[in-house]
Design goal:
Blueprint: H1 4-8, H2 12-34, H3 42-63
Length: 64
């Protein structure tokens, strides 16, 4: 799980890279879930919350 206070100190490129990585991981988890290869359904929710944290920080930066 990513912490918001740690994300605030990262630059724009790093945040966008993490965002892309998290989106890809969610895609992979969903495909594994459909194939019944994983029992780790809680990871999808955690990664979605991490995406929300990153998008919030990006929104705050663009507003200021």
């Amino acid at each position: 799980m990513l912490k918001a206070k740690d994300l605030i100190n990262e630059d724009l490129g790093e945040l966008e890279a993490k965002l892309e990585t998290l989106r890809h991981e969610i895609y992979e988890l969903r495909s594994e879930l459909l194939d019944s290869k994983t029992q780790k359904t809680h990871l999808i929710g955690e990664k979605r919350k991490d995406i929300a944290r990153i998008l919030t920080i990006l929104g705050q930066r663009s507003a200021s």
